[in-house]
From TrEMBL, chain A:
Keywords: Endoplasmic reticulum, Magnesium, Membrane, Transferase
Membrane topology term: Peripheral membrane protein
UniProt cross-references to Gene3D superfamilies, sorted A to Z: Decaprenyl diphosphate synthase-like
Subunit structure as annotated in this protein's UniProt entry: Forms an active dehydrodolichyl diphosphate synthase complex with NUS1.
Protein name as catalogued: Alkyl transferase
EC number: 2.5.1.-
Family matches, as InterPro entries: UPP_synth-like, UPP_synth-like_CS, UPP_synth-like_sf
Organism: Danio rerio (Zebrafish)
GO molecular function term, any single one: ditrans,polycis-polyprenyl diphosphate synthase [(2E,6E)-farnesyl diphosphate specific] activity
UniProt keyword Manganese present: no
Family: Belongs to the UPP synthase family.
C-alpha cells in the first residue's frame, strides 16, 4: 500500500470540510494510533494484519488532513516501551517498517510532487541496522521538501527525547559553545527531536485510552487533547471532523493560555539575563555603582551575545544531526 | 460561497455551545433537586425508623465511614490525584470539598493546579477552606484526619503542606516545564564544573532530580475540570502514564461525581507498552 493517496473527498465530505475550514483550523495534528491489536482480535484476524490495516488507515488519514488544509502530522509509530512486547510481534513491526520505508523510497516522484518531507523522531540507534539505513535514506531524500510534513515517532518516548535534549545542551557546554546559564525553555525546545516543527495544536488518541503514554509530553502542554473511543483501523473522516470541532471549541481558551505562557517565558529570560549581568559586574568588582543607562546597555549587550552563542550552538547541533543521517544513508551504498 | 460556509459554521457552533449550556444547566439543577429531595425525605425516614435523632455528628460519622468503605471497595485507588482547573471562575469551597473527599476515600497525595497560578497566589485561602470543609464534612472527633500545616523545608517557596494521612500540594506552571529547565541547568552546571560529563545524563538521572524537587510520586489520575480540552502546562514530565479524566465543572461537583471518576480509573488497564 502506498503512502500517498490521491482520491478526492466525496461531495458530502468536501462540504463538511469547507464548513469546518470557516473556523480556526489546527496546523499540526498528532495521532496516537491505538487499537490495532484490539481490532484484529475483534475481527478474528492475525495481529500483524491489524498493524497493516493501521498503516493503511494512516495513509488515508494523511489524505484527509491534506484536504482539510492540515500540513503537518506527527504519529506515534513505535515506542521504546514497545520493545517489551513479544519477539514475534516486535519482529513483525520491524518488518512492516522495512516494507513501508522501502516502498517510500520507490515513491520519490510522488513525494516530490506533493512536497512531502518525512522526519523520523526517536533514538534510531535502538533499531536494527538495516532499518536505520532505510529510515535515514527516506529522511535524507525528502529533507528539502517543504509543503507538508510527516513526523514519524519511532523508537521514541518523550522522556527519552527530553533527556536527550538536556544531554545535547550539556554537550554544548562541554564544547564551550554555550554556558549553563543559557539553558532556557526556548533552548530546550530547540534541542528536542521536534525542533523543526511548531507544537501540535491538536492531539488525537483513539481506542478510548485517556493517557499520553510518554508521547510529546513537552510539546502538547498547551495543545487540545481529544480522546476518542473508536479503534484506529476503524477511524473515519467523521471522527476527524469531530476532533476538529472539539479543537475549535477549546481554541480561544487555549490560545489565551499559550499567550500567557509566552509572556511568562519572556519574563523568565529577562530575569535570567539580569542575574547574569549582575554577576558579571560583581566579578569585575570595580565597585562603581552604575547608572541606569549603562546598566541597560550592559543588559542589551549581554542578551545579544547570549543570542549569538545560542544560535551558533543550534547551528552546530543541526549539522551534527544532519551528518548523522547522511552517514547512515550513505552506509548502504558501501554495503 | 465562503460566506455561506462561514454562516453554517457559526450556526453549528452556536448549536454546540447551546447544547453545552443546557447540559451544564441540567447538571447543576438536577443535583440541587436531588439535594432538596434528600433533605426532605431523610428526616422523614429517620423520623419513622428512629425516634432519637442522630444529629449532625451521627451523619458525619456515617458519611465518613461510607467514604472510607468506598475507597476500600474500589479495585485500585490512585496514590496521587491532580485536580486541574481550567475554568476562569474558581470556587474555593468546591475545590476544598473535592480535596477533603479525596482524603476521606484514602488518597495519599492531592495536588491542585490552575494555569494562571491563582491557587498558588491564594494558597493560604485554599488551605483555610480545606480545613474548614474538613471539619464540616468529617467532623472534629477523628484524630485520623487531623491536619497539620507544615512549611515545606526543602523548598524556598512557602508551600503549605497538610501532612499526616494525606498531603496537599498547590501547583502552577512553574512546577512544569520550568522545573525541567531548572534541572537541566543544574546538570549543565555540573558539566561546566567538570563534575559530570554529558554522557552521564539519561532519563533516570533527570527523573530522580525532578522527583527530588517535588517530593511526591507521579500523579496516576488527573481530574480536569472545565470545557477546555487541554492540560494547560500541568507537570509535563510527570503525566507520562497519568489517566486524564474530564469533568464538566468543579463548581457544585458532588461526591458522586468524584466517585464515578475513581470507578472509571479503577477500570482502566495499563499495558505499559506491551
Amino acid at each position: 500500500m502506498s503512502w500517498i493517496r490521491e482520491e478526492k473527498l466525496s461531495l458530502l465530505e468536501r462540504l463538511t470540510a469547507n464548513i469546518l475550514k470557516a473556523g480556526p483550523m489546527p496546523k499540526h495534528v498528532a495521532f496516537i494510533m491505538d487499537g490495532n491489536r484490539r481490532y484484529a482480535q475483534k475481527e478474528h484476524k492475525e495481529r500483524q494484519e491489524g498493524h497493516t490495516q493501521g498503516f493503511e488507515k494512516l495513509a488515508e488519514t494523511l489524505r484527509w488532513c491534506l484536504n482539510l488544509g492540515i500540513h503537518e502530522v506527527t504519529v506515534y509509530a513505535f515506542s521504546i516501551e514497545n520493545f517489551k512486547r513479544s519477539k514475534e510481534e516486535v519482529d513483525g513491526l520491524m518488518e512492516l517498517a522495512r516494507q513501508k520505508f522501502s516502498r517510500l523510497l520507490t515513491e520519490q516522484e510522488n513525494l516530490e510532487k506533493h512536497g512531502v518531507c518525512i522526519r523520523v523522531l526517536g533514538d534510531l540507534t535502538l533499531l536494527p541496522e538495516d532499518l536505520q539505513t532505510l529510515i535515514a535514506k527516506a529522511v535524507v531524500s525528502t529533507r528539502a521538501h517543504n509543503k507538508c510534513f510527516l513526523n514519524v515517532c519511532f523508537a521514541y518516548t518523550s522522556r527519552h527525547e527530553i533527556a536527550n535534549a538536556v544531554k545535547e545542551m550539556a554537550w554544548g557546554v562541554e564544547q564551550g559553545l554555550i554556558k549553563s546559564s543559557d539553558v532556557s525553555e526556548v533552548l530546550l525546545s530547540e534541542c528536542l527531536y521536534s525542533s523543526n516543527s511548531p507544537n501540535p495544536d491538536l492531539l488525537i488518541r483513539t481506542s478510548g485510552e485517556v493517557r499520553l503514554s510518554d508521547f510529546l509530553l513537552w510539546q502538547t502542554s498547551y495543545s487540545c487533547l481529544v480522546f476518542q473511543s473508536v479503534l484506529w483501523p476503524e477511524y473515519s473522516f467523521w471522527n476527524l471532523c469531530e476532533a476538529i470541532l472539539q479543537f475549535q471549541m477549546s481554541h480561544r481558551s487555549i490560545q489565551k493560555a499559550r499567550e500567557l505562557h509566552r509572556e511568562e517565558q519572556v519574563l523568565q529570560q529577562m530575569e535570567s539575563d539580569r542575574t547574569c549581568v549582575a554577576e558579571i559586574l560583581q566579578h569585575r568588582g570595580n565597585g562603581k555603582p552604575m547608572d541606569g543607562q549603562s546598566q541597560q546597555n550592559a543588559l542589551l549587550n549581554y542578551s545579544s551575545s547570549r543570542e549569538e552563542r545560542v544560535r551558533g550552538f543550534l547551528n552546530t547541533l543541526q549539522h551534527k544531526r544532519d551528518a548523522f543521517f547522511d552517514d547512515l544513508s550513505s552506509q548502504a551504498v558501501v554495503a | 460561497m465562503a460566506s455561506l460556509y462561514e454562516m453554517v459554521w457559526r450556526f453549528l457552533h452556536a448549536l454546540l455551545y447551546l447544547q453545552r449550556a443546557i447540559v451544564a444547566w441540567f447538571r447543576v439543577h438536577i443535583w440541587r433537586w436531588k439535594l432538596a429531595v434528600v433533605d426532605l425525605l431523610l428526616p422523614l425516614a429517620l423520623g419513622f425508623h428512629n425516634q432519637k435523632k442522630t444529629g449532625p455528628k451521627g451523619t458525619r460519622t456515617s458519611r465518613r465511614v461510607r467514604w472510607g468503605a468506598d475507597g476500600r471497595t474500589l479495585e485500585k485507588l490512585p496514590l496521587h490525584v491532580g485536580l486541574l482547573v481550567t475554568e476562569e471562575e474558581i470556587h474555593y469551597t468546591d475545590i476544598a470539598n473535592l480535596v477533603v473527599w479525596c482524603m476521606a476515600v484514602g488518597i495519599s497525595y492531592v495536588s491542585v493546579y490552575d494555569n494562571q497560578g491563582v491557587f498558588k497566589r491564594n494558597n493560604s485561602r485554599l488551605m483555610e477552606e480545606i480545613l474548614k470543609q474538613q471539619q464540616e464534612l468529617l467532623g472534629m472527633g477523628s484524630s485520623k484526619y487531623s491536619v497539620e500545616i507544615l512549611k515545606n523545608g526543602t523548598n524556598k517557596q512557602e508551600h503549605q503542606v497538610l501532612s499526616c494521612q494525606s498531603m496537599v500540594k498547590v501547583l502552577s506552571p512553574d512546577d512544569g516545564r520550568l522545573s525541567i529547565v531548572q534541572a537541566a541547568q543544574q546538570l549543565c552546571r555540573a558539566v561546566e564544573q567538570k563534575e559530570k560529563t554529558s554522557k552521564d545524563i539519561n532519563v533516570s538521572v533527570l527523573d530522580s532530580l525532578l522527583k527530588e524537587s517535588k517530593n511526591i510520586p507521579d500523579p496516576d489520575l488527573v481530574l480536569k475540570f472545565g470545557t477546555v480540552q487541554s492540560t494547560l502546562g500541568f507537570l509535563p514530565w510527570h503525566i507520562r502514564l497519568t489517566e486524564i479524566i474530564s469533568m464538566p465543572s468543579h463548581i457544585d461537583a458532588s461526591y458522586d461525581d468524584l466517585y464515578d471518576a475513581l470507578q472509571r480509573f479503577a477500570g482502566c488497564e495499563q499495558r505499559l507498552g506491551k
